[in-house]
């Protein structure tokens, strides 16, 4: 029976490791103190919690490793100018067959980095929870017991981490403060649905504490004071819980199983403001795909022409997607026209080629886009200034609109979808008399414009779950991630994967 040996202690000293957590050997680290020593001072926990929040933001934006960026090209939100991180491999173009995720290569970064980044954060937080429970530790402020503040943040973080694991991977280990790390085996691998349930249980605990205690949160937890008190932390937890349920379906067939009343209960008290950092911020060195696509910068990516095609007038010659196979070197699409005002504000027509590797013209112009991202992209400037977004209030509002529509609150759904559709897009086509199908299509249209360029997993979740056929993932696209082969090999489990021929959806062929 293989036993877990990963030295969780190194995580507290800022060492990043991609070694498996569960490898079958017992190794004692002769130089670092044991976890009990590190965890022994509860007054250090606010700093550890702040680090966990920061790492969550950093890892999910995909800074420097590109793993979440692959989700953006797989969902056609972005196309790639360069081949780094296999970004071009998963962008759809006519006559191209997407491959499976290469989960037979132990050195492949995707999806390995996403897997281990999540478990590194989980290790830190579960150790705090375990030590509090085992030692009866009490955190005090002004000589008053404020342990609930530590618990509320830890529960939120565990819920957020397991939310993302449940949405990204088909199965995973469920490591909690009650887990015996030394006895974990392959039998402890559980389906994503159980990870979702675990995420919701943690988020519910956070929400309960925030409902029963009024408090000002620790400083330095998140930018813009987004979790600055019990009300804001509760709203963020509700938002994450709604995401865990609504985004879980891998196909449109699974969409019908979503409990929309439960989603609505959470999201009705969701985000009240954008989750963003205003840079430069001391100690922050972040780079999102949006920032990497700034028109005056290196342009690692461009806006996927599928989005421009959705926004443009039908048949517009400047919004062809996918490009014909005879569209080759030196050809450029004209500027597209749209009834949506945002085509001129959020996106910029920018046919000039300017990328780190000399052009967007690999294999002709089959991956090319004439549009750069103008919104969410200020941090691509050399000054490093601008707003770096993680989640937007619009995403929360549109999720509320979807839940309202599915629970027969049509007027509420229309009100919420028009917050962006009318106010930013200057579109006035959705009213209380619109059909349910038309309102649903408008909700997803808004999501692809408003929510696809901050955290790049969001359009991936939307495309795989949407009931609107024309918005679905393209054929052969992966719809979830496998446990990395590096982890599987330590349990003598066979490699498996997703995408490619085994996920050919002819009804979504374009």
TrEMBL record:
Major subcellular location class: membrane
Keyword Signal annotated: yes
Subcellular location(s) of the protein: Cell outer membrane
A GO CC annotation given for this chain: cell outer membrane
InterPro entries: SusD_RagB_dom (IPR012944), TPR-like_helical_dom_sf (IPR011990)
Assigned keywords, A-Z: Cell outer membrane, Membrane, Signal
Family that this chain belongs to: Belongs to the SusD family.
Protein name: RagB/SusD domain-containing protein
